[in-house]
Design a protein that fits this description.
alpha+beta, 3 domains, 53% helix, 529 residues, seven-stranded antiparallel beta sheet, kinase, 18 helices, Beta-Lactamase, elongated, Heat Shock Protein 90
Length: 529
């Protein structure tokens, strides 16, 4: 900015000298009009060609180049028509305000002082102006007071304008971050997702949709949904668009679920699915299209009523404290499925949550004869002598922040640790770890249990898994812990996986990392005496 200020000062000075030169040479009116026409042509050419090329690369420099051409036009016009007595003198005030808005207040100060200096010189060189001002010296004082008054006024307006411009830039960055985050959420959902416009043209498909249907993104983007996919009911009858609630969702803006359907793949096969159709609404409340979530149809769902009857029978004989815990988990699961939970509210240190939950479960793990471990510090901390009270760090997790709902993320990690300790073999180990990469963070629990099979691990993802898994150590669980944790991680754009590992069971949760702006505090500086 200092270089731009010096450059503008130099150009203002040259423009003023050129204008005073016109007064001293006493050129003819015709020549003066030709000079003014040439300056106007310079302004037009600068606006049409130079400004457009520079504005995309450096907006401040573009405005400066444009304003310098305009300043030459104003100086020529004002000094050739009587300087202080010119009817166009008001243009210098307007120009000063415009420069403060678009470029900087420093350049406005430079322009005002150079203008005042050349106006004083013009009085000496132009006898007509000198004679008029001698008759009324009060007018001269008012002219210069006007220039002094314009400086604080332009400074005030420029500050407000810059502040609003900063707000707009910050809001646009937030919208851009939100858009990227939404795209990342869609890409990381394990279920197939297809986004279509109001006329059913496909505008987005995630990787899961590509893998399940066999269609490449480039093959189906822009095509009509019903031209690409054939939808059938559970009896094999083809369903046209009129028989599906797509238009109803667009009209009512309410989500709809349709179960027991079939959808075609690229290989002319059909997958048994359940559909969830949601409206896509912009910030103005206008419906832009539909989001179609294609869920795999699980044969176990056909037996869900029988399972619920078993659960109802079990709840009737359950102790009161266990019944409260089950009811809480059931309500939370219903809230998560209905989408009535709070959004991603703030940046949360996931490592801090993990370490606090390890402290919570330490007694429970000892009762189960399970060793709860984590990466420990390599060097012992030497504490000061005497009795002190301070928090002690037991784990060396990296400090990593994720955009999350703190209560929900804590509940998910709590549930995973609870199930992990319950699954561990006696005298076994549950090792917790937090790992980071460029765009993701992983929370992992490695559980010692070599006997359990992968088929049994898959059952953990079911609601009331303790009804399917007849393991003695799971009686403390409500059976909803993993389903709740999975739903929470997916709502945060993450993925939860449970798999066999050479050492036992690996519970891995992946979350997206977003950039967090850290504002440096203003540290007061003290002068040395």
């Amino acid at each position: 900015m200092e270089k731009l200020t010096l450059l503008s000062t130099l150009v203002f000075t040259l423009a003023g000298l050129f204008s005073l030169f016109l007064i001293r040479t006493e050129i003819s009116l015709e020549t003066l009009l030709q000079v003014i026409a040439a300056v106007i042509l310079l302004v037009v050419l600068t606006t049409r060609f130079v400004f457009k090329k520079i504005v995309g690369q450096n907006k401040t420099l573009a405005y400066l180049v444009e304003s310098l051409a305009i300043s030459l036009f104003i100086y020529v016009l004002v000094f050739s028509t009587g300087s202080l007595t010119s009817p166009f003198l008001i243009l210098t005030h307007l120009y000063a305000i415009g420069v403060a808005f678009l470029i900087s207040w420093q350049i406005t100060i430079s322009f005002v002082f150079i203008t005042v200096a050349f106006l004083i010189l013009s009085i000496r060189f132009d006898p007509t102006v000198s004679a008029q001002l001698l008759e009324n010296q009060f007018t001269l004082i008012l002219y210069f007071l006007a220039y002094l008054a314009i400086l604080p006024f332009t400074n005030f307006l420029a500050k407000i304008y810059r502040q609003k411009e900063a707000w707009v830039e910050e809001l646009s960055q937030m919208l851009s971050t939100s858009k990227k985050h939404q795209e990342t959420l869609l890409k990381n959902i394990e279920d197939a997702v297809v986004v279509i416009s109001k006329d059913f043209a496909i505008s987005f498909v995630n990787q899961a949709a590509v893998e399940k249907t066999g269609f490449a993104q480039n093959d189906i983007i822009g095509k009509n949904f019903f031209e690409v996919f054939t939808i059938k009911d559970d009896t094999g009858g083809t369903l046209e668009s009129e028989k599906l609630p797509f238009s109803a969702v667009l009209a009512t803006e309410n989500e709809v679920k349709v179960d027991k359907l079939q959808i075609s793949t690229k290989g002319a096969n059909f997958l048994r699915i359940n559909l969830k159709i949601l409206p896509v609404i912009d910030h103005n409340g206008q419906v832009l299209g539909l989001m179609i979530i294609i869920k795999d149809f699980d044969e176990r769902e056909t037996a869900s009523w029988a399972q619920l009857e078993k659960v109802q029978e079990k709840l009737s004989i359950m102790p009161q404290d266990k019944l409260k815990e089950t009811a809480y988990d059931l309500l939370l699961a219903l809230r998560l499925e209905s989408g009535t939970v709070e959004g991603l509210s703030s940046f949360i240190n996931i490592s801090d949550i993990v370490e606090k939950e390890m402290i919570v479960f330490r007694q429970f793990a000892q009762e189960r004869r399970v060793n709860l471990t984590c990466p420990s510090p390599t060097n012992d901390t030497i504490l000061p002598k005497g009795k002190i009270i301070m928090s002690e760090k037991h784990c060396t997790f990296p400090v990593v922040y994720v955009l999350a709902n703190g209560k929900l993320l804590t509940a998910a990690i709590h549930n995973l640790m609870k199930v992990a300790i319950s699954l561990a073999e006696p005298s076994g180990e549950v090792h917790a770890d937090v790992q980071t990469a460029t765009d993701i963070v992983k929370f992992e629990l490695l559980v010692t249990n070599k006997k359990i099979k992968q088929e049994d691990l898959n059952l953990l993802l079911n609601k009331f898994f303790n009804e399917d898994l007849k393991l003695p150590n799971l009686e403390i669980c409500t059976g909803l812990e993993i389903a709740i944790a999975k739903e929470i991680f997916e709502k945060h754009g993450g993925v939860l996986k449970i798999s066999k590992n050479p050492k036992g069971i690996l519970i891995s949760a992946t979350l997206i990392r977003l950039e967090m702006k850290i504002t440096k505090p203003n540290v007061p500086r003290f002068k040395e005496n």
